[in-house]
Each structure stands twice: as C-alpha cells, then as structure tokens.
C-alpha cells in the first residue's frame, strides 16, 4: 500500500473530518472511499460512453420511455419484505 502526503486547505480538511466522523470512519478511510467512488464513477461513465457510442440515441430514448410507461406507482417494500425476497422464503 502506498503512502501519500496530501496538502489541502484547512477548511476542506475540517469538513472532510466532520463527514468522516458522521460516518464513523477515520479521515484516511473517508478519503480512500471517496476517491474510490469517484474513480468507479468515472470509469463507469467512460465504459457506458463506449458502449453507447454506436447506439441510436432516439431509439434508445424511445425504448427507455416505453419501459418507464409500464412502471406502476405503489408503496415501497418494507425491510422485512426485502429480506424475505432475498432469502427466497
């Protein structure tokens, strides 16, 4: 594992420490998780951009809208219902 010295503004560090504290993690863990999430998001967007580069955007939009028109509003499942569905009971 690499070690990195990082310079940042005092106010930014204080805000990051507050967020880390709210999540119950160290500043180091918070920065690592935030950086990992940012990298994953960037890589995902790049991959999706590559996969959609040759797609007809209007046709894709029409397919998405058709799918969305079939969704139904309703109540969200409870935690117990979600756990039951996951366990297969």
UniProtKB/TrEMBL annotation:
Q: How far does the signal peptide extend, from start to end residue?
A: none
Report the coiled-coil segments.
none
Xref: InterPro entries: Arc_rbn_hlx_hlx, Ribbon_hlx_hlx, Uncharacterised_HicB
What biological-process GO terms show up in the record? Answer: regulation of DNA-templated transcription
Q: Read off the Pfam families from this record.
A: HicB
Q: What is this protein called?
A: Bifunctional antitoxin/transcriptional repressor RelB
